[in-house]
Specification:
Number of strands: 8
Structural class: alpha+beta
Helix content: 25-40%
Distance between the termini: 46 Å
Number of domains: 1
Number of helices: 5
Strand order of the largest sheet: 1-8-7-6-2-3-4-5
Length: 225
């Protein structure tokens, strides 16, 4: 039963990626035939859009940070960008990254790389988690391979979004940091209005949290700030 659930999740993730690719291809062909290629190119640029209040109903992933207190982030001795660079140097680009409160009630940093790289499809990949105490320098996370259907299915979905988003998780974090300087503490793949990208939370110097969607948006959004 567990294997069948995992296989079903993998199939759904792969089919979803194919649907996204077909939709983009169809849009491109339609615009080119009508002589509007330049308009399409301007709309397909990666955008960083602040969404007040968090993901909202237009995002497929509405998960929010699980931190007992945002003030705990001040204890971290490593930024999310530096942690992602550290992971990429030894493992592979990550598909998810977040600071969260661990089961022990203490601040934890979790990064999720894939064992066979982000260009390998979900059915032939290895999904992993690197978790460790970010209040200690250097950050020395322990590695765990996912084997349960819930994590495997969720990770397969994340990988499919990353493969179709047009940029890596770290690039998305860097874009948000460039737009809203602060401490990025949560970054997950998501789909907004049918378009793959990332949902990223950052904390500004005044202690206020901001949520951004990073990805391709084909039409102007009233939520943009």
């Amino acid at each position: 039963m567990k294997n069948s659930k995992f296989i079903a999740g993998i199939v759904i993730a792969i089919l979803f990626g194919l649907l996204i690719g077909c939709a983009k291809s169809s849009n491109s062909e339609t615009m080119e035939k009508s002589g509007e290629k330049s308009a399409l190119e301007s709309k397909e640029e990666i955008q960083v859009v602040e969404i007040p209040g968090g993901p909202g109903a237009k995002a497929t992933d509405t998960e929010k940070p699980s931190l007992s207190s945002l003030s705990e982030l001040k204890k971290s001795k490593i930024t999310l960008i530096d942690a992602l660079k550290q992971v990429e140097a030894k493992y592979s680009p990550a598909i998810e990254a977040k600071f969260e409160t661990g089961d022990d009630g203490k601040l934890s940093l979790s990064i999720y790389p894939v064992g066979n790289g982000i260009n390998t499809d979900a059915s032939r990949n290895v999904f992993q988690e690197l978790a460790g105490d970010p209040t200690v320098s250097p950050w020395e996370p322990s590695l765990d391979n996912f084997t349960d259907p819930e994590h495997l299915t969720g990770s397969a979905r994340d990988l499919t979004i990353v493969q179709t988003a047009g940029l890596t998780l770290r690039e998305a974090v860097e874009k948000v940091n460039g737009k809203q300087p602060g401490f990025v503490y949560w970054a997950l793949p998501t789909i907004r209005d049918g378009h793959p990208g990332y949902g990223v939370y950052t904390l500004d110097s005044y202690g206020k949290s901001h949520y951004f969607f990073v990805g391709e948006l084909y039409s102007d959004s009233s939520e943009r700030t």
